[in-house]
Amino acid sequence: MVAILNPDILSDVRLSIDEYLSADFPEGYRYELVGGVVMMSPIPDPSHDLVVVALNAQFVLYNARQPGVIAHISQRFAVVIPSRGTAREPDLGLYSPEESPGRSGRTWRNATPMLVVEVISPGQENRDYDDKRRDYWDAGVGEYWIADPQRKTLTVLTRQRAEWAEQVFAAGATYQPALLPGLDVVVDELFKV
Length: 193
Prior knowledge:
alpha+beta; 6-stranded mixed sheet; two-stranded antiparallel ribbon; 4 helices; 23% helix
C-alpha cells in the first residue's frame, strides 16, 4: 500500500490504478487519479453535501419500492478508465444487479455503474461538465447526472450509440429516468438550501 502523508507532493507522484485504489491519502481532501497523476480538491461545502444527501435519499427510497433495479448505491467508489490511467470518484453511483461490485468477484476496477452523479463545486465546472463527460463515456457509464447548485439545474447525459444525449432540467422541472422507472426527480427538491 502506498501512503502519502504530504498533499503538497501529489503532483509529483505517478501511480498505477491499483496503487491509487489501495493508497492512503491525507484527510481533508478528495482525490482522483487522472492520467496517472493524483488530483486533489477540497472537501465540498455543506450545500454540495445537501444535494448529495437529497439524491441519495431518493435512490434509497426508490430501491425499497422497486427492488431488483438497483443492486448497489455508493458514495465512496471509483470509476476506472484503464486506458487513461484514470480513476474518477463521483459523488454518487448506482450499480445494476449485473454490474454490482462484490458480486462474482467484481471490484471497483471492473464494475461499471449504470448511473453516476456529480454535484458541481465552485471552480470545478470545467472538470465536471467537460473532462468527466468524456471519462464516464469511455468507462461505459449508462447515465451521467450533473447537479449544479449555482445554476439550480440538473444536466442529464444519457448514453446513445455514439455520444451522450443531453437534457437540462431547471427550476420547476421533473426528470423521470428511463433507467429507474417510477422515479420522479424534482429539481426544486434538490436545491433546497
